[in-house]
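Thread: sanity check for a docking pose with S-adenosylmethionine

Original post by kr_44:
Hi all, I'm comparing my docking run against an independent structure prediction. Below are the sequence and the ligand SMILES. Could someone generate the full complex and paste the structure tokens? I mainly care about where the ligand ends up relative to the chain.
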Amino acid sequence: MRLDQYMALCLGHPQHGYYMTRDPLGERGDFITAPEVSQTFGELIGVWCIAAWSAMGEPDTFNMVELGPGRGTLTSDILRAARRLAPGFAQAASVRMVETSPVLRARQADMLAGQGTWHDRFEDVPAGPLIVVANEFFDAIPIRQYERRGGRWHERAVGLTDDGLTMGLVEADFGTPGSDGDIIEAAPARCDIATIIGQRLAQFPGAALIIDYGHAFSAPGDTLQAMRRHRYVPLTEAPGECDLTSHVDFEALGKAFRAGGADVMPVITQRQFLLAMGLEQRMAKLTERADAATRSMLERQMTRLAGEDQMGNLFKVLAATSPRLATPYPFGRS
Ligand SMILES: C[S@@+](CC[C@H](N)C(=O)[O-])C[C@H]1O[C@@H](n2cnc3c(N)ncnc32)[C@H](O)[C@@H]1O
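Reply from moderator J.T.:
Ran it for you. Here is the predicted complex with S-adenosylmethionine included:
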């Protein structure tokens, strides 16, 4: 079975898929995401969304879309910030959650007190102006891997032997030059989603903000990983019980948005984004009336989100907009 097929089944099988059967987030789950680390993450993204809405001409109604919203914390924090800073934005927002997991849909509905409409795919979001946010969504979209051996490319696949599930290689027709030992990842499903969003941004005023772990420029390497209870495990260890993800190739993702017709800003790190958006100032405000224990918790949260050896540099931020839309700070146009 091809790797992308294996990944799609492990994560999304209606009965046994990892995301379909559980809420994997949090200390007691398998991993923690930035919106779960601190409310400031979603608030600062909220400020960015308000700036994008202004650049769009403050439409009376627009689709506020989140892809793969987990517990719904990011959208909830965006809307809370907007109610304080730009009530017009909050009133105009038609909240659209793109989510396949019934378990997580229920958590999101609780978090948003039912405010929202749920869709299986981005394509189902109705036409019109839009703002799209996605944190740790694209890393969960299935990928394919090619490995160079004996001067030829092979595709990595999963098979069943007497020892159980095993990774193996099958013949592949893959044209890229390479040297023995190289592994190249391709994510056609990921690129398809980006191109479809890019097409929407070319048709209607809007902007998209994509945050994920990955690299700004395409490079060979094996980044596929399985995680269970905050630890890495072999890919075939427990299908449907582990989170399978890979690093996002932001150069390829940017090209896919452009292919759809969107403008794409140069990729920056999560650290650059959050500091430019005012992370330190927001944390200082929260610290003002906090006791010592809360203050040290806020400090730890800030280090976790923006620390160079933590999420700060590993996570990248890509912004795509409708052509010629004024670039929302802090991105420069490429
Ligand atoms: C790693 S979680 C991230 C959750 C959230 N964005 C956060 O930052 O806390 C991945 C999310 O994407 C959803 N998801 C995974 N594959 C999906 C797909 N093909 N279509 C829609 N949602 C998907 C999962 O159910 C989950 O909500």
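The two ends are 40 Å apart (CA to CA). Hope that helps with the comparison, let us know if your pose agrees.
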